[in-house]
Design brief:
Elements (H helix, E strand, L loop, with lengths): L1 H5 L1 H23 L3 E3 H5 L6 E3 L2 E4 L2 E3 L5 H42 L7 H4 L7 H11 L2 H9 L3 H29 L4 H27 L5 H21 L1 H15 L1 H14 L1
Antiparallel strand pairs: 1-4, 2-3
Length: 269
Protein backbone atom coordinates (compact mmCIF):
# COMPACT_ATOMS: atom_id res chain seq x y z
CA UNK A 1 0.00 0.00 0.00
CA UNK A 2 2.82 2.38 0.84
CA UNK A 3 4.44 1.86 -2.59
CA UNK A 4 1.15 2.45 -4.42
CA UNK A 5 0.33 5.66 -2.57
CA UNK A 6 3.87 6.96 -2.94
CA UNK A 7 3.34 7.23 -6.71
CA UNK A 8 2.51 10.83 -7.61
CA UNK A 9 0.23 9.80 -10.47
CA UNK A 10 -1.85 7.59 -8.16
CA UNK A 11 -2.15 10.29 -5.54
CA UNK A 12 -3.14 12.81 -8.18
CA UNK A 13 -5.87 10.49 -9.48
CA UNK A 14 -7.25 10.00 -5.96
CA UNK A 15 -7.32 13.75 -5.25
CA UNK A 16 -8.85 14.69 -8.61
CA UNK A 17 -11.31 11.79 -8.45
CA UNK A 18 -12.38 12.65 -4.91
CA UNK A 19 -12.95 16.29 -5.80
CA UNK A 20 -14.78 15.32 -9.00
CA UNK A 21 -17.19 12.89 -7.28
CA UNK A 22 -17.78 15.15 -4.27
CA UNK A 23 -18.77 18.07 -6.49
CA UNK A 24 -21.05 15.85 -8.58
CA UNK A 25 -22.92 14.57 -5.51
CA UNK A 26 -23.20 18.01 -3.89
CA UNK A 27 -24.50 19.49 -7.17
CA UNK A 28 -27.28 16.91 -7.25
CA UNK A 29 -28.52 17.74 -3.75
CA UNK A 30 -28.22 21.53 -3.78
CA UNK A 31 -29.89 21.53 -7.19
CA UNK A 32 -33.29 21.49 -5.50
CA UNK A 33 -32.88 25.21 -4.75
CA UNK A 34 -33.74 27.65 -7.53
CA UNK A 35 -32.02 31.02 -7.22
CA UNK A 36 -32.09 34.29 -9.11
CA UNK A 37 -28.67 34.96 -10.61
CA UNK A 38 -29.48 38.62 -11.21
CA UNK A 39 -30.72 39.31 -7.68
CA UNK A 40 -27.75 37.41 -6.23
CA UNK A 41 -25.47 39.75 -8.15
CA UNK A 42 -27.46 42.76 -6.98
CA UNK A 43 -29.57 43.84 -9.95
CA UNK A 44 -33.07 43.32 -11.28
CA UNK A 45 -33.84 40.14 -13.27
CA UNK A 46 -33.70 40.42 -17.03
CA UNK A 47 -36.79 39.71 -19.11
CA UNK A 48 -36.06 37.72 -22.27
CA UNK A 49 -38.29 36.15 -24.89
CA UNK A 50 -37.20 32.91 -26.56
CA UNK A 51 -39.24 30.62 -28.80
CA UNK A 52 -42.35 32.61 -27.91
CA UNK A 53 -41.84 32.18 -24.14
CA UNK A 54 -41.83 35.56 -22.39
CA UNK A 55 -40.37 36.89 -19.12
CA UNK A 56 -37.47 34.46 -19.05
CA UNK A 57 -34.74 35.27 -16.55
CA UNK A 58 -31.67 33.56 -15.14
CA UNK A 59 -33.49 31.52 -12.52
CA UNK A 60 -31.08 28.61 -12.08
CA UNK A 61 -30.68 25.59 -9.85
CA UNK A 62 -27.93 25.95 -7.27
CA UNK A 63 -26.34 22.86 -8.82
CA UNK A 64 -25.37 24.88 -11.90
CA UNK A 65 -22.76 26.61 -9.75
CA UNK A 66 -20.83 23.34 -9.45
CA UNK A 67 -21.45 21.58 -12.75
CA UNK A 68 -18.98 23.78 -14.66
CA UNK A 69 -16.39 22.78 -12.04
CA UNK A 70 -17.24 19.11 -12.61
CA UNK A 71 -16.77 19.44 -16.35
CA UNK A 72 -13.47 21.29 -15.91
CA UNK A 73 -12.31 18.49 -13.63
CA UNK A 74 -13.35 16.10 -16.40
CA UNK A 75 -10.99 17.83 -18.81
CA UNK A 76 -8.12 17.85 -16.31
CA UNK A 77 -8.58 14.12 -15.62
CA UNK A 78 -8.92 13.49 -19.33
CA UNK A 79 -5.63 15.25 -19.99
CA UNK A 80 -3.61 13.12 -17.56
CA UNK A 81 -5.56 9.85 -17.34
CA UNK A 82 -7.41 9.62 -20.64
CA UNK A 83 -10.94 8.54 -21.52
CA UNK A 84 -10.70 5.39 -19.41
CA UNK A 85 -9.94 7.43 -16.30
CA UNK A 86 -12.87 9.79 -16.90
CA UNK A 87 -15.28 6.96 -17.68
CA UNK A 88 -14.27 5.06 -14.56
CA UNK A 89 -14.88 8.09 -12.34
CA UNK A 90 -18.11 8.97 -14.15
CA UNK A 91 -19.57 5.49 -13.65
CA UNK A 92 -18.43 5.53 -10.02
CA UNK A 93 -19.99 8.97 -9.50
CA UNK A 94 -23.31 7.82 -10.98
CA UNK A 95 -23.32 4.76 -8.73
CA UNK A 96 -22.59 6.86 -5.65
CA UNK A 97 -25.20 9.47 -6.60
CA UNK A 98 -27.81 6.73 -6.95
CA UNK A 99 -26.67 5.23 -3.63
CA UNK A 100 -26.90 8.66 -1.96
CA UNK A 101 -30.47 9.15 -3.18
CA UNK A 102 -31.48 5.70 -1.92
CA UNK A 103 -30.02 6.50 1.52
CA UNK A 104 -31.78 9.89 1.58
CA UNK A 105 -35.14 8.32 0.75
CA UNK A 106 -34.52 5.74 3.45
CA UNK A 107 -33.82 8.57 5.92
CA UNK A 108 -36.99 10.38 4.82
CA UNK A 109 -39.03 7.32 5.73
CA UNK A 110 -37.70 7.14 9.30
CA UNK A 111 -40.19 8.09 12.01
CA UNK A 112 -38.99 11.36 13.65
CA UNK A 113 -38.46 11.59 17.39
CA UNK A 114 -40.84 13.91 19.20
CA UNK A 115 -38.06 16.20 20.45
CA UNK A 116 -36.15 16.29 17.13
CA UNK A 117 -37.00 19.89 16.07
CA UNK A 118 -36.16 21.25 19.50
CA UNK A 119 -32.74 19.60 19.49
CA UNK A 120 -31.69 21.80 16.56
CA UNK A 121 -32.71 25.10 18.11
CA UNK A 122 -30.21 27.36 19.87
CA UNK A 123 -30.62 26.64 23.61
CA UNK A 124 -29.92 30.31 24.41
CA UNK A 125 -33.15 31.45 22.70
CA UNK A 126 -36.04 32.57 24.84
CA UNK A 127 -39.28 30.63 24.75
CA UNK A 128 -40.89 33.29 22.55
CA UNK A 129 -37.92 33.27 20.12
CA UNK A 130 -38.02 29.48 20.07
CA UNK A 131 -41.71 29.52 19.10
CA UNK A 132 -40.97 32.04 16.33
CA UNK A 133 -38.37 29.67 14.88
CA UNK A 134 -40.79 26.74 15.02
CA UNK A 135 -43.51 28.85 13.39
CA UNK A 136 -41.22 29.81 10.49
CA UNK A 137 -40.00 26.28 9.88
CA UNK A 138 -43.27 24.47 10.60
CA UNK A 139 -43.10 20.72 10.28
CA UNK A 140 -39.38 19.78 10.37
CA UNK A 141 -40.00 16.31 9.00
CA UNK A 142 -42.00 17.73 6.09
CA UNK A 143 -39.29 20.30 5.43
CA UNK A 144 -36.64 17.55 5.43
CA UNK A 145 -38.68 15.56 2.91
CA UNK A 146 -39.37 18.64 0.79
CA UNK A 147 -35.70 19.63 0.53
CA UNK A 148 -34.11 16.21 0.06
CA UNK A 149 -36.94 14.28 -1.60
CA UNK A 150 -36.43 15.17 -5.25
CA UNK A 151 -38.81 13.67 -7.80
CA UNK A 152 -37.92 10.40 -9.52
CA UNK A 153 -37.91 11.93 -13.01
CA UNK A 154 -35.59 14.73 -11.86
CA UNK A 155 -33.18 12.17 -10.43
CA UNK A 156 -33.30 10.06 -13.60
CA UNK A 157 -32.93 13.13 -15.80
CA UNK A 158 -29.94 14.50 -13.91
CA UNK A 159 -28.14 11.14 -13.82
CA UNK A 160 -28.71 10.45 -17.54
CA UNK A 161 -27.72 14.02 -18.45
CA UNK A 162 -24.55 13.70 -16.37
CA UNK A 163 -23.55 10.42 -18.04
CA UNK A 164 -24.31 11.60 -21.58
CA UNK A 165 -22.58 14.93 -20.95
CA UNK A 166 -19.46 13.19 -19.63
CA UNK A 167 -19.24 10.84 -22.61
CA UNK A 168 -19.71 13.73 -25.04
CA UNK A 169 -17.07 15.73 -23.18
CA UNK A 170 -14.36 13.05 -23.31
CA UNK A 171 -15.11 12.18 -26.94
CA UNK A 172 -15.00 15.83 -28.06
CA UNK A 173 -11.87 16.48 -26.00
CA UNK A 174 -9.95 13.66 -27.71
CA UNK A 175 -11.21 14.52 -31.19
CA UNK A 176 -9.95 18.08 -30.81
CA UNK A 177 -6.65 16.85 -29.35
CA UNK A 178 -6.15 14.54 -32.33
CA UNK A 179 -6.25 17.61 -34.56
CA UNK A 180 -4.23 20.02 -32.40
CA UNK A 181 -1.84 17.76 -30.49
CA UNK A 182 -0.54 19.26 -27.25
CA UNK A 183 -1.26 22.79 -28.45
CA UNK A 184 -4.42 24.81 -27.77
CA UNK A 185 -5.37 23.43 -24.38
CA UNK A 186 -8.05 26.12 -24.15
CA UNK A 187 -9.71 24.86 -27.33
CA UNK A 188 -10.00 21.20 -26.41
CA UNK A 189 -10.90 21.85 -22.78
CA UNK A 190 -13.30 24.77 -23.18
CA UNK A 191 -14.65 23.46 -26.49
CA UNK A 192 -15.48 20.02 -25.08
CA UNK A 193 -17.01 21.60 -21.96
CA UNK A 194 -19.26 23.88 -24.02
CA UNK A 195 -20.46 21.01 -26.23
CA UNK A 196 -21.12 18.74 -23.23
CA UNK A 197 -22.90 21.53 -21.34
CA UNK A 198 -25.13 22.10 -24.37
CA UNK A 199 -26.17 18.45 -24.30
CA UNK A 200 -26.53 18.39 -20.51
CA UNK A 201 -28.73 21.52 -20.45
CA UNK A 202 -31.39 19.97 -22.67
CA UNK A 203 -31.23 16.27 -21.78
CA UNK A 204 -32.05 16.88 -18.09
CA UNK A 205 -35.02 19.11 -18.98
CA UNK A 206 -36.34 16.73 -21.62
CA UNK A 207 -36.38 13.79 -19.20
CA UNK A 208 -37.28 15.55 -15.95
CA UNK A 209 -39.88 18.01 -17.22
CA UNK A 210 -40.91 17.21 -20.82
CA UNK A 211 -41.42 13.51 -20.04
CA UNK A 212 -41.83 13.70 -16.26
CA UNK A 213 -43.91 16.88 -15.85
CA UNK A 214 -45.61 17.40 -19.26
CA UNK A 215 -43.81 20.64 -20.07
CA UNK A 216 -44.16 21.80 -23.66
CA UNK A 217 -41.18 21.28 -25.94
CA UNK A 218 -41.04 25.01 -26.57
CA UNK A 219 -40.74 25.74 -22.83
CA UNK A 220 -37.97 23.13 -22.51
CA UNK A 221 -36.07 24.71 -25.42
CA UNK A 222 -36.48 28.21 -23.96
CA UNK A 223 -35.33 27.36 -20.42
CA UNK A 224 -32.60 25.06 -21.73
CA UNK A 225 -31.24 27.91 -23.86
CA UNK A 226 -31.19 30.28 -20.87
CA UNK A 227 -29.34 27.66 -18.82
CA UNK A 228 -26.84 27.08 -21.63
CA UNK A 229 -26.13 30.80 -22.01
CA UNK A 230 -25.09 30.88 -18.36
CA UNK A 231 -22.98 27.72 -18.67
CA UNK A 232 -21.36 28.99 -21.88
CA UNK A 233 -20.28 32.25 -20.24
CA UNK A 234 -18.99 30.45 -17.12
CA UNK A 235 -17.01 27.98 -19.26
CA UNK A 236 -15.28 30.87 -21.00
CA UNK A 237 -14.58 32.70 -17.73
CA UNK A 238 -13.08 29.57 -16.16
CA UNK A 239 -10.69 28.91 -19.07
CA UNK A 240 -7.72 30.61 -17.34
CA UNK A 241 -8.33 28.28 -14.37
CA UNK A 242 -7.40 25.34 -16.59
CA UNK A 243 -3.93 26.76 -17.18
CA UNK A 244 -3.45 27.46 -13.48
CA UNK A 245 -4.43 23.90 -12.53
CA UNK A 246 -2.23 22.44 -15.27
CA UNK A 247 0.71 24.50 -14.07
CA UNK A 248 0.24 23.30 -10.48
CA UNK A 249 -0.08 19.66 -11.57
CA UNK A 250 2.93 19.85 -13.89
CA UNK A 251 5.06 21.29 -11.10
CA UNK A 252 3.86 18.56 -8.73
CA UNK A 253 4.50 15.72 -11.19
CA UNK A 254 7.66 17.11 -12.73
CA UNK A 255 8.13 17.74 -16.45
CA UNK A 256 9.14 14.20 -17.37
CA UNK A 257 6.33 12.49 -15.41
CA UNK A 258 3.75 14.97 -16.67
CA UNK A 259 4.68 14.46 -20.33
CA UNK A 260 4.68 10.69 -19.91
CA UNK A 261 1.21 10.66 -18.32
CA UNK A 262 -0.29 12.96 -20.96
CA UNK A 263 1.22 10.84 -23.74
CA UNK A 264 -0.11 7.61 -22.25
CA UNK A 265 -3.52 9.21 -21.67
CA UNK A 266 -3.74 10.16 -25.33
CA UNK A 267 -2.46 6.83 -26.62
CA UNK A 268 -4.60 4.77 -24.28
CA UNK A 269 -7.81 6.67 -25.12
Amino acid sequence: MKNILSDKGTRLFIVLGGFFITNAIIAEFIGVKIFSLEKTLGFEPVSMELFGEKNLAFSLTAGTLLWPVVFIMTDIINEYFGMKGVKMLSYLAIGLIAYAFVMVYWAIGLEPAGFWPLSHIDPELTEIEEQEVLTKVGDYNYAFRLVFGQGLWIIIGSIVAFLVGQLVDVYTFHKIKEQTGEKKLWLRATGSTIVSQLVDSFVVLLIAFYIGANWSLVLVLAIGTVNFIYKFVIALLLTPTLYIIHHIIDRYLGEEKSEEMRRLAHEGG
